[in-house]
User: Which sequence fits this backbone?
């Protein structure tokens, strides 16, 4: 197979001495890798979940609320997902992407309606500049509806990923309960607001890049879902926009997960909590695996600010919409714009001419 015929980035990158033109960002939108706060003094909060189900729950809930309010991102330790489950998840992820091209391509599709698919960049059909990433997208809930679609190779893939997905959902529900309480709502309010709920996973593969200063693994964006749980291997790449306007490098800590709230929590909290810009940069020496689990409303769920968080001093900031409507807008826009929440803001509607 020639390089021009290669479908997946991994097979292009393996032969590339320079970044192909379709992945090169315009100079004004390239990552300034020197302007990143990697000093260790700026970081995202670390929250210990050990007592989330114990007598210290109120303090843990307060810490989660503070992290959501001030940063939109936090790391968690003692999260309850066993080490062997995490190890198995990362192992089969690496094994999948190390398979021959012919085996990987059995899962390939650029159709976003497919619930299980291998693809590249973000939206290969519409974007003008590609991102330095291949990804395997998996729907995970209800598990029995999708498990049969998942890759049969490597042989341990389905079992390992299913075990991780079940544990990730359990953790997502615990975190949503805590976030709900931190807003002064009933524990189950946010979970109920998500409708029947959905859970997706992306197994991301970022190959080494010969010129990482020219491209992104993923450019700056905000997540469209409710909450994201990120598992990383030991290779850095995630960067979060800090309160001072500089990017913060989030070094992966073995066993920890990185949590961030998405656009739907921003709406449901009536802007008390904000989803935050983040991006992925690549390097020229080591490939990287990351596994974000996206916990989402079901497509028909109607999203609106929680009534208890709406008053004269803080009126509803958003119109109501279904998650399906929102996600369609997000997908069609791609990552060329940072967020599409502004389309649903009440203030912007008032500015439109009659």
Assistant:
């Amino acid at each position: 197979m020639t390089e021009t015929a290669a479908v997946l980035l991994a097979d292009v990158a393996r032969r590339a001495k320079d970044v192909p033109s379709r992945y090169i960002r315009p100079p004004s939108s390239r990552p300034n890798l020197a302007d990143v706060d990697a000093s260790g003094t700026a970081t995202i909060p670390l929250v210990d979940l050990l007592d989330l189900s114990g007598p210290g729950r109120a303090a843990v809930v307060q810490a989660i609320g503070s992290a959501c309010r001030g940063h939109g991102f936090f790391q968690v330790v003692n999260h309850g997902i066993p080490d062997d489950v995490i190890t198995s998840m990362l192992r089969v992820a690496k094994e999948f992407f190390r398979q021959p091209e012919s085996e990987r391509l059995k899962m390939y599709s650029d159709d976003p309606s497919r619930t299980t698919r291998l693809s590249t960049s973000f939206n290969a059909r519409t974007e003008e500049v590609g991102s330095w990433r291949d990804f395997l997208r998996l729907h995970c809930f209800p598990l029995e509806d999708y498990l049969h679609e998942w890759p049969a190779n490597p042989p341990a893939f389905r079992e390992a990923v299913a075990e991780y997905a079940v544990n990730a959902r359990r953790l997502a529900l615990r975190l949503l309960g805590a976030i709900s309480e931190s807003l002064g709502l009933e524990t189950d309010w946010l979970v109920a607001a998500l409708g029947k709920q959905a859970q997706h996973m992306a197994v991301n593969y970022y190959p080494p890049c010969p010129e990482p200063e020219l491209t992104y693994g993923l450019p700056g964006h905000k997540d469209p879902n409710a909450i994201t749980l990120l598992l990383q291997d030991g290779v850095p790449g995630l960067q979060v926009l800090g309160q001072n306007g500089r990017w913060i490098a989030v070094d992966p800590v073995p066993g920890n997960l990185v949590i961030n709230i998405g656009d739907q929590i921003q709406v449901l909290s009536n802007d008390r909590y904000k989803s935050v810009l983040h991006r992925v940069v690549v390097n020229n020496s080591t490939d990287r695996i990351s596994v974000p689990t996206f916990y989402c409303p079901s497509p028909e769920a109607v999203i609106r600010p929680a009534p208890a968080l709406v008053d004269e001093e803080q009126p509803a900031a958003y119109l109501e919409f279904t998650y399906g409507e929102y996600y369609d807008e997000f997908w069609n826009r791609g990552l060329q714009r940072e967020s599409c929440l502004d389309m649903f803001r009440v203030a912007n509607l008032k500015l439109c001419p009659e």
About this structure: The mean pLDDT is 92. The chain has ten helices and 15 strands. Residues 72 and 276 are 6 Å apart (CA to CA).
